[in-house]
Amino acid sequence: MVKAIGIDLRADIAKKFMEYDYEEYNSKDSGMYVAWLTQDVDYVLNNGVKPFYMMLNQIISVIASLIGATMIHWSFIIIFPVSLLVTMITPKYLAPRMQNVAEDYSHESGIFTSKIKNIMLGFGVFLSENCIDKMNIQIAKSTTNLEDGLSIRSWKIQNSQ
C-alpha cells in the first residue's frame, strides 16, 4: 500500500511539472525536481504514510485480539485493557530514570574516551620508553574505572527512587 502511494505521489508530482512551459521549467534547477521525486517523497512516506499504516495495523491487531480473547473467556475483556494501560504507563514512569542512566553513561563514556585518547596520543612515548605493557595497564585501568563509575551511578539511581 505504501509503495502504491509512493508511485501515485511521484506520478502526481511528475504531472505537475510536465504542465510547466519551457521557461517555467528552467526557472528551477533540475536537482530540485529530482529532490521532489526522491527525497521529498521518501520523507512523506517514511514520516507520514508508514507510521499511519503501522498505527492502523496495531489498532486493528488489538481489536482483533480483544475479540478473539473474549470469545475464549469473557474475563479477557477486562484483562486486556488493564494490561494495555500498564504497558502504556510503564515507559512514561521509567523515562526519567532511563534519561538519567543515559546521561550518566554518556558522561562516563566521555571521560573514558578522553582518557583513552590521551593514552593513545602517548603511544610514541610508551614505545620509546619501551613500556608498552604500561600502556595496556593504563587502558585496563581506564576500562575498570569506566565500569566502576557506571556501576556506582547505576546503584545510586536504583536506590534514590
From TrEMBL:
- Give the organism, scientific name: Clostridium algidicarnis DSM 15099
Question: Which residue ranges does the record assign to the ABC transmembrane type-1 domain?
Answer: 1-116
| Gene3D superfamilies from the UniProt entry | ABC transporter type 1, transmembrane domain
Q: Which PROSITE patterns match?
A: ABC_TM1F
Lineage at the top is: Bacteria, Bacillati, Bacillota, Clostridia, Eubacteriales
Query: What name has this protein been given in UniProt?
Result: ABC transporter transmembrane protein
Q: Domain of life here?
A: Bacteria
Q: Which InterPro entries match?
A: ABC1_TM_dom (IPR011527), ABC1_TM_sf (IPR036640)
Instruction: List the signal peptide residues.
Output: none
Q: Which GO terms describe its molecular function?
A: ABC-type transporter activity; ATP binding
Q: Where in the cell is it found?
A: Cell membrane
Q: Which UniProt keywords apply?
A: Membrane, Transmembrane, Transmembrane helix
User: Which residue ranges traverse the bilayer?
Assistant: 59-89
